[in-house]
Amino acid sequence: MFIVIEGIDGTGKSTQAKRLAEYLEAKGQTVVSSFEPTDGPWGTLLRNSAETGRLSPEEELETFIKDRREHVSKKIAPALAQGKIVILDRYYFSTMAYQGARGFDPTEIRKKNEAFAPVPDLLLILDLDLDKALSRIGGRGAGTNEFERRENLSRCREIFLSLASESFVRIIDTDKSPDEVTESIIAALPTSTCGQQ
Ligand SMILES: Nc1ncnc2c1ncn2[C@@H]1O[C@H](COP(=O)(O)OP(=O)(O)O)[C@@H](O)[C@H]1O
Ligand SMILES: Cc1cn([C@H]2C[C@H](O)[C@@H](COP(=O)(O)OP(=O)(O)O)O2)c(=O)[nH]c1=O
């Protein structure tokens, strides 16, 4: 079972990824939790670039893909092959959204990724109004680029929501308490993965 959690910054992905892993472990499942960008060399380069200056659009896209190739081959594919539940905080849908917002075609990005990256069984898209998401993460990034940042995240949210009608996608409204969001996530799990108590 491969579960991916996506959404714009501040929607509660890390909070809910942790809660979902705890819930499944309490049910006796073996869970491998991970995230992108990873803490490997490419992911570290990407994280540092947020402070040292963003890479060019092409370089950035290629680096997210290199990071993911390594992540898939070293961690995701082996864990799935061992029958474990894999929970990811961000995956190639973030590339569709964020690099899509930077000018690339989300459909092309998807094709490029699905050539090597397994499609999840369940994609949970955490959704929250932009103002509420930004207020949850505080003033980070405020300043001269604030307008650009809002425009960007708004486009990212649109790209995420454009996936809503796909069979493996569930949109989770996170304008609720953390407990209520966790309940909605558990309700979205298939019964074979402890979806019902
Ligand atoms: N349902 C919620 N209601 C209110 N605050 C929340 C909720 N879920 C998470 N938060 C808080 O919002 C902030 C962002 O949450 P986080 O899980 O880090 O989001 P993300 O990983 O999507 O950026 C954190 O301070 C977290 O404690
Ligand atoms: C996985 C991925 C993340 N990102 C971006 C989204 C985030 O702004 C940033 C870092 O992700 P993340 O660590 O989830 O951010 P935070 O912990 O600050 O919420 O990387 C992309 O632009 N493309 C991608 O493919």
Automatic annotation (TrEMBL):
Q: Where does ATP bind?
A: G7, I8, D9, G10, T11, G12, K13, S14
Q: Which reaction does this enzyme catalyse, per its entry? A: dTMP + ATP = dTDP + ADP
Q: What does this protein do?
A: Phosphorylation of dTMP to form dTDP in both de novo and salvage pathways of dTTP synthesis.
Family membership = Belongs to the thymidylate kinase family.
Could you tell me what this protein is called?
Answer: Thymidylate kinase
Q: Which organism is it from?
A: Luteolibacter algae
InterPro entries on file = P-loop_NTPase, Thymidylate_kin-like_dom, Thymidylate_kin_CS, Thymidylate_kinase
Q: Which residues form the Thymidylate kinase-like domain?
A: 5-185
Q: What is its EC number?
A: 2.7.4.9
Q: Does the keyword ATP-binding apply?
A: yes
